[in-house]
Structure formats: C-alpha cells, structure tokens
Amino acid sequence: MSTAQTGSTKSSEAWxxxxxxxxxxxxxxxxxASVEELTAAVRRAAEDGLKVKAVGTGHSFTAAAATDxxxxxxxxxxxxxxxxxxxxxxxVEAGTPLKRLNLALAREGLSLTNMGDIMEQTVSGATSTxxxxxxxxxxxxxxxxxxxxxxTASGELITCSxxxxxxxxxxxxxxxxxxxxxxxxxxxxxxxxxxxxREEPMTFDKVLADFDELHAENEHFEFYWFPHTGNCxxxxxxxxxxxxxxxxxISSLWEDEILSNGLFQVVNSLGRAVPGTIxxxxxxxxxxxxxxxxxxxxxxxxxxxxxxxxxxxxYAVPRAALVETLRExxxxxxxxxxxxSFPVEVRTAPADDIALSTASDRDSAYIAVHMxxxxxxxxxxxxxxxIFTAHEGRPHWGKVHTRDxxxxxxxxxxxxxxxxxxxxxxxxxxxxxxxxxxxxGD
Length: 442
Prior knowledge:
Blueprint: E1 8-10, E2 15-16, E3 23-24, E4 28-30, H1 35-47, E5 52-54, E6 70-72, E7 80-84, E8 89-93, H2 98-107, E9 110-111, H3 123-128, E10 145-151, E11 157-161, H4 166-172, E12 181-188, E13 190-191, E14 194-203, H5 204-209, H6 211-217, E15 220-225, E16 231-240, H7 249-273, H8 278-285, E17 292-296, H9 298-302, E18 310-318, H10 322-335, E19 344-349, E20 364-372, H11 378-390, E21 394-395, H12 405-411, H13 415-425, H14 434-440
Parallel strand pairs: 4-6, 5-6
Antiparallel strand pairs: 1-4, 2-3, 7-8, 8-12, 9-13, 10-11, 10-12, 14-16, 14-17, 15-16, 15-19, 18-20, 18-21, 19-20
C-alpha cells in the first residue's frame, strides 16, 4: 500500500492533548479514509516495527493515546452507518464526535439514554476511556454499546457483541486502546425524550446529609462543591412529559457563557497570579449562579460548553463511601494551605458488567478534582489521591493518576481477564505505550 493511499505523512510537529500536559512526537501520522486504509496502516506499522495509536480530540489528561510511532487520526471515519429502529440501535464510525452524533440522532428523533457533560470527544475516545455522566439507573456511554468493530494487531477486522466474540465485547467497550483500534460502535438508542433540569444552591452539609435521598429520588443527580466554602450547586435531571421550556437566550448567555466561562476564566487567571485571592473568589463564585429550572432534549440538558482549560483527576469510590470520602477531602483542604479555584464535581453510576469500567460490578460515586491550566496541581492531587485510594478508588482512565497494574489488579476483580485477552490479541504490544505499560503491565 503506498503512502498516498493510506493518507500517511511524516510528522514534523508534536501532538499535544487538550490540556497541554501531554506531548508526543510520532514518526508519522495517518488519516485513513476507510477501514481498509486503517487496516493497511496497522499492518505497515507492524512491518516497520513501529507502535501505533489512534487519537481522538485529546480530551484525556493521561498519555493513553501518546506514541512515538504511528499516530492514527480518525477524523475521516465519521458519520452514522446505519439506524435500526426495530432494535433501537445506531452504528456510527469511530471518529465521529459526540456532538455530531447527538445532533444527528436528534434530527432522527432519537437519543442516547445518558451522556457526559461535554460532547467534544470522538465516540471511540470517549468510550475507550470510560467517559460517563451521572445516573441512578443509566450508566456510562460505554455501557450503552451493543456492538463493536475493531482492527487487531494482526490486521484482522473483528466484530463483537454479547453473542459474537462475547469475551472481547466484555473488555473492548472500555479497551484503553490496548486491544485494537475501534472502527465502529453500535449504540443502544431510544426515541428522543425531554428532561427537566433543576439547578439550585445547597450547603455542603445538607447535600451530604440528604445524599442518599437525593440520589434515590432523581434519575440523574450531581453537585459541585466549592473548596474553601460550605457551598454547593446541585443539579437534578428527570424525564418530563413537557412541554419544552429551554433556557432562555439571555440566561444561557449570562450563566453558561459569561459566568461559567468568560468570568470564570478571568477569576482563575487572577487566582493563578495571586493565590491568596482564591478563598474570597470561591465564596463569590459559589453564590454567582442562581436557581433555575428548564426542560429540553437530553444533550441540551446533559452537556454544556467548557472553555476554561484545566487539569483533572477523578476517582470512582463505592457509592456507600461517598459521604465519608468527601468529608475527608474537605477536611484535608481546610487544614492545608492549598488554594483551589475549581469546584469539585460529584456524580454517580450504577454497577455495570464491563471488565475495566470504573463501575464494574459495584455501584459507584465519582469525585473529580480540578486545577486551572498552568497552576501547580501535584500537591492537591497527591493528597486527594491518598484519600481516594484508601477507599479502594478506581481512577478514570483518561484523567491524571499515579496508579499502576499492581494496584488495579487489587481493585478490579476482572483485571486478569482483560490482560489475558490483551496477551491474546496483541502479544507483541503493537498498541502499547508507556501509559499502558504502567497501568496494565508488560
């Protein structure tokens, strides 16, 4: 296969992720226009003795997609392949951005059941790292997968589902890019529905005191705690019979753009320059957003624009351990001289059956800590990680953490099942890199 046919170019520029904390320099980049071209690129990389990784939009904070070999860019592998209304599924090319998928599904009168809070990622990047939203009954995006197609290290194109290659399906839905390169995903979808969002301030103590009740009574509950304060913002999303009552243009401009992005950018820049101002800023920020209720189609409720860049660590702890874990986190921040300008995000997910899902076989709660881009984050994240791991926390695969294969073998009952499958599908580690070596072992 010639270079021109596979869309291959020698790489002279470094690849950087969205947050700018990961940089790699691939030997060459390939932008395949078809599954056949992708397969040829994988085979050629193997022949040349080069590692190969596919990269989405770079929204992971880890080096999961970094490579000094061949970098596959899937932006030409986009769009919906087929819709099966009878079975409630849609098959989509792996490079399709979630935003494009959500818009296309809405035009067809369809929707995913649950989704994360941003939609810039590709479908394969989001699912491979375990991207999730919040839900009492509905789980991560990967848990909504009904079928997968991927190219293995041998250049073979494999399809899998609950009935076809089920052992691969059990692992590859959150595969970390370790088992092959995903080329298409079949998602479960349903007729588009309405959600009513209720956003309101609440004190930290009240949220924790009422957490079990808030979780049980709402289909989707999440909240943000502002460090250095006793204040939270809460959000409850529940299905609604309507009518639609979307956020007004004025409210959207003021709260979602000016306050949550524009002004938030300014105050974080100030906090980075003068850390002593952060506690005061936090108290003001925690009271800036007022209560509001609105009703709209799912992606307009679940997702929101996030233009302020940051670095993030997120751990899943057993849901029953959330309140204790969060109290310990607040106590640590209060005792320290840390200055944290970003709120802590808390969400939930029910147990699922995916081998390396952060919710694998246990009901989970997620605690995400952030620091503004360019601000030293290591001391805060290290202290938070010590608290999370004391509760058998499982870090998000695409967010900053220091855990290794030995740790994961202890917190994932099916870890050995995944690594054995990797040995079978990629014995020579064609899809390996330093990150996978750390988290999965050799």
